[in-house]
Specification:
The chain is mainly alpha-helical. Among the domains are: 8-92, Tyrosine recombinase, N-terminal domain (DNA polymerase, domain 1, Orthogonal Bundle); 116-246, Intergrase catalytic core (hpI Integrase, Chain A, Orthogonal Bundle). Helices cover 55% and strands 4% of the residues. It has helices spanning 8-19, 25-44, 54-66, 71-92, 116-123, 131-146, 150-154, 184-194, 199-202, 227-240, 249-262, 267-274, 279-300; strands at 161-162, 167-171, 177-181. Strands 1-2-3 form a three-stranded antiparallel beta sheet, with no helix packed on it.
Length: 309
């Protein structure tokens, strides 16, 4: 589906998302892409935003389905459209044509965490004391030890760390701030990275950007490590450990949450740790843990599958 320039009300909506709601650049890019597709479809049908009816929005969803878009992709596009029309309705006092259009059902995809032995193998794969090795070890330890998102890790600044207190300040989605505990292995890895032989050795003679000087994690050019750069680091160690195709920063986040729940953590504590706005988002990890519990039961109990003692 082709894209189109956005009408002024849609641009105002994106500005509102950025300024009033604190949405990230990645979220704004996704909204813009979905709304451009919607604007192109409206233009092709001779519609304007202020003349759209509920039936039009429903037809647009059907068009996306007929084009072979995955249910999750259709649902995401509809979220953008519904949020736009709700914004316009609130601003103008007009009816909201998208309010009652139901999104397609998205099959629940269960995360596939690493087991604890695989995590140990991964963390032990970083060998060496060179600055890059210290950085990579700290990245893996922090991702697994705190469950933070890769964007949150790359956004860390030196002032966010309290290693003596074992805490780190994290800015999550919507610029929401939370305080996260940092375990002893991750603190040790961070101290080694922040020592003169680690981060200090990667500091450039002159900072290319002013804010890079405060970044916890640097790339080899001395700038703030990007999300893509951190992703590549995680993937490289996954390949080294035989986890190619299975490992990503988000899998480490899944693994952190799942292992905590398996060891008895309260689900609301895990919700706070991960920065989930809703407990329902965290509950997906309880289903994973239940599956593992059943697998262990089936393998270990003499009568789990009808076997006699």
């Amino acid at each position: 589906m082709t894209t189109a320039a956005l009408p002024k009300p849609a641009e105002e909506f994106l500005t509102w998302l950025a300024v009033e709601r604190g949405r990230s650049a990645n979220t704004l890019t996704a909204y813009r892409r979905d709304l451009q597709g919607y604007a192109a479809w409206l233009a092709a049908g001779g519609h304007r935003l202020d003349t759209v009816a509920e039936a039009d929005v429903a037809r647009y969803v059907a068009t996306l389905r007929d084009a072979g878009r995955a249910p999750a992709s259709v649902a995401r596009a509809l979220v953008a459209v519904r949020t736009l029309h709700r914004f316009l309705a609130d601003a103008d006092g007009a009816p909201d044509p998208a309010a009652d259009v139901a999104p397609p059902r998205v099959p629940a995809g269960l995360p596939k965490p690493l087991d604890e032995e695989e995590v140990v193998t991964l963390l032990d794969a970083v060998v060496g004391t060179a600055p890059v090795h210290r950085r990579d070890r700290a990245i893996l330890e922090v991702l697994y030890g705190t469950g933070m998102r890769i964007s949150e890790l790359c956004g860390l600044s030196l002032g966010d760390l309290d290693l003596d207190g074992g805490l780190v300040r994290v800015f999550g989605k919507g610029a929401k701030e939370r305080i996260v505990p940092v375990g002893r292995p991750a603190r040790t890895a961070l101290r080694e990275w922040l020592a003169p032989g680690g981060r200090g050795a990667m500091v450039p003679a002159r900072w290319a950007r002013r804010h890079d000087a405060e970044a916890v994690f640097l790339n080899q050019r001395g700038g703030r490590l990007s999300r893509q750069g951190a992703w590549a680091i995680v993937r490289a160690y996954g390949i080294r450990c035989g986890l190619d195709g299975r490992l990503s920063p988000h899998v480490l986040r899944h693994s952190c949450a799942t292992h905590m729940l398996e060891h008895g953590a309260d689900i609301r504590i895990v919700q706070e740790l991960l920065g989930h706005a809703s407990i329902s988002t965290t509950q997906v990890y309880t289903r994973v843990s239940t599956e593992r519990l059943r697998a262990v039961y089936d393998a270990a109990h003499p009568r789990a599958r009808g076997r006699a003692s």
